[in-house]
Amino acid sequence: MSYMVQKLLVLLLVGPGWSWWRKETGPTTTCSSSGSSYCDRSDRGLSSVPHDLPKSITSLHLGRNAITSISSSDLSSIPSGAFSNLPSLYFLTLLGNGLSNIQTGAFSNLPKLERLYLNINNLTKIHPDSFSNLRKLRTLDLGSNQISNIDSDMLNNCPNKPYWLRTFYSVC
Q1: Which of 14, 37, 144, 162 could form a disulfide with 140 if both were Cys (CB 3.0 to 4.6 A apart)?
Q2: What are the tens digits of pLDDT across the range 122-143?
Q3: Which residues are within 8 A (CB) of 168 and not within 5 positions of it... i.e. 6 or more apart?
Q4: Span of the secretion signal (predicted)?
Q5: Which domains can be identified in the chain, with CATH numbers?
Q6: Angular region, 59: left φ>0, alpha ψ -120 to 50, beta rest
């Protein structure tokens, strides 16, 4: 078999699976606006949360990107209320981003959020009011971080008292 035929055969067999190789690097990434409630922007090299997400999504996956800080004052990362235009969001994953900071207001205006995955990051502490507005939060995964202490008052405004998955600290 000639070299060119072998190359063509490899491209035909593997071609569609190479979508992981093309990484989108900016916040202009969009999800389908055709009514889909699922949006996966994992493994895209994103450094910030996309701003043009449809309001109808309920599940947002931003895992394994380059989002390093969730802060109310750092506009180069995730500012306060970054997800506020997603009132239907009930599932959010930011796992494996290298997050090192989460401040008050980062998850504000998410009245339906039930599952939040912040595992496999570089978090060392959590501000006591980080999750104060998440009244429906049921699952919070902080596993595989470097958190040494969690304020016992952190979940006072969460009536469901979320389950802590794979972390050193259990509230349930």
Answers
A1: 162
A2: 888 887 778 877 888 888 888 8
A3: 147
A4: 1-19
A5: 35-172 (3.80.10.10)
A6: beta
